[in-house]
Design goal:
By secondary structure, the chain is of the alpha+beta class. The chain has one domain: 2-Layer Sandwich (Alpha-Beta Plaits), CATH 3.30.70. It is 38% helix and 34% strand. It has 2 helices and 5 strands; from the N terminus they run E-E-H-E-E-H-E. Strand 1 and strand 2 form a beta hairpin. Helix 1 runs antiparallel to helix 2. The radius of gyration is 13 Å and the shape is globular. 23% of the residues are buried.
């Protein structure tokens, strides 16, 4: 199961943590893991190419992703809110394989 935590501070999304594997299918055929990984990579690449990576602390490892917002840059906030929306949409489609929780 993929577990995602959206951490809010003072009403604003401050951190996203994603861990685990969906185990929807075997490695290389797991569309749930592929969708989540793609959403994360697209977000991280957009931040890098838009030179916004100084606004976040970012960790990407096998089966683990953590993004912590360091300041309130409007574009960066938009990108992480889009990631939140995407991950929530994936959870709605595959609730047996992904659980999202909100904290704060």
């Amino acid at each position: 199961m993929i577990n995602t935590k959206f951490v809010y501070e003072k009403g604003n999304l401050n951190q996203i943590t994603v861990s685990g594997h969906a185990n929807y299918k075997t490695y290389g055929k797991d569309i749930v893991c592929a969708a989540v990984s793609t959403a994360i990579i697209v977000t991280a690449n957009a931040m890098k190419h838009l030179k916004l990576d100084q606004h976040v602390d970012l960790t990407i490892e096998e089966g683990y992703f953590k993004l912590h917002l360091k300041d309130n840059d409007e574009t960066t906030i938009g990108l992480i809110k889009n990631l939140e929306y995407t991950l929530n949409d994936i959870e709605k489609q595959y609730p047996k394989y992904m659980k999202n929780q909100k904290e704060g």
